[in-house]
Design a protein that fits this description.
The protein is α+β, with helices and mostly antiparallel strands. The protein folds into four domains: about 80 residues, no CATH class; about 100 residues, 2-Layer Sandwich (Tetrahydropterin Synthase, Chain A); about 45 residues; about 70 residues. It is built from ten helices and eight strands. The strands form three sheets. Strands 3-2-5 form a three-stranded antiparallel β-sheet. Strands 6-7-8 form a three-stranded antiparallel β-sheet. Helix 1 packs antiparallel against helix 2, helix 4 packs across helix 6 and helix 7 packs across helix 8.
């Protein structure tokens, strides 16, 4: 029930003050009876007029009953009623209203207990139906939303609920809107905020996801090995038909092995004959050539450091 507006209270005091002023101006101080009657009459008139004045806000509609029967919808703004005969029974808010509702420990289609939180956005389109067709329409919407949510959860698998919240929200909106339409209420949207599952099931789902990722990693690794084997097979066919390419490849592998410092490479004698390196002398010559190359690089680095140090001293 809406409280009395400050404007009606102001009108009451204005009328009552005017009556007091008229009483004092009309009668002498000795004639108090007339002044009292004028004061009482002004009080009653002020009370009736202030009771007849009503103000509805911009977003409100007032439901007026006359002797118990529906009379009209009034507002927004200033309007008047007949005191005692008319009464304002409801002030209907026409704005979009949000209502939170939950379903706790509800079993899904695959018998998993879940807690679901959702938010309902709704609006009153017909204030007359909302006031006359149902008592306490706000609580009725809350209960209708909870029962609809439980029904949808019971018909939905857990995996579908976690992956398709939008689908679940659309189904809820349709069900709740069908239930509230006779009450003059329109459901704008339903948003499923959160789906909470038991901690033990969360651990099991985490282990399942980890196992799935490991399986995918093994599949990718096996596919990579298959591709490498295919490439090696193609390379073997190339080397079979081109001995020169095989010789160059073997030389490159041997060079890469000897290029690192303090590296000893043991090569079968058959491989030396195939690469035509001239036995142990060829290997020694190749190693000496690499050592000489490394010594030249070392000398160049030392000379470079000396020059740099001399330049720093001069500066």
């Amino acid at each position: 029930m809406k409280t009395k507006s400050s404007f009606s209270v102001f009108i009451f005091f204005v009328i009552f003050a005017i009556g007091i002023v008229l009483a004092n101006a009309r009668y002498d101080i000795q004639d108090k009876t007339g002044a009292i009657w004028i004061g009482v009459m002004s009080f009653l008139v002020a009370l009736i007029v202030s009771s007849a004045i009503k103000i509805a806000d911009q977003w409100e509609k007032a439901v007026v009953l006359r002797l118990g029967r529906f009379q009209s919808l009034r507002g927004p703004g200033l309007f008047f009623i007949i005191p005692i005969i008319d009464s304002v029974v409801y002030w209907i808010d026409l704005r979009v209203i949000t209502t939170s509702f939950t379903a706790e420990k509800t079993l899904t289609k695959d018998t998993v207990p879940v807690d679901v939180d959702a938010v309902l956005f709704w609006k009153v389109l017909d204030a007359k139906k909302a006031a006359l067709e149902i008592a306490e329409y706000k609580s009725a919407i809350n209960w209708a939303s909870q029962t609809a949510l439980r029904d949808v959860i019971g018909k939905t698998m857990l995996s579908e609920m976690l992956e398709g919240r939008d689908k679940m929200s659309n189904i809820l909106q349709k069900i709740i809107d069908e239930r509230t339409e006779p009450w003059g209420i329109n459901v704008i949207s339903v948003e499923v905020k959160d789906v909470n599952i038991p901690p033990a099931l969360q651990d099991a789902m985490s282990m399942q996801a980890q196992a799935e990722r490991e399986r995918q990693a093994r599949v990718i690794l096996g596919d990579s090995e298959r591709q490498v084997a295919e490439k090696f097979g193609e390379a073997a066919k190339t080397y079979t038909n081109d001995p020169t390419a095989l010789h160059l490849r073997a030389m490159n592998m041997l060079y890469e092995g000897l290029k690192t410092n303090s590296t000893i490479v043991i090569v079968p004698s058959s491989a030396l004959e195939t690469m035509q390196l001239g036995g142990l002398a060829g290997i020694t010559a190749l190693s000496m050539g690499l050592n000489k190359e490394r010594e030249e690089k070392t000398q160049k680095n030392v000379q470079k450091d000396v020059r740099k140090s001399e330049t720093d001293k001069i500066e």
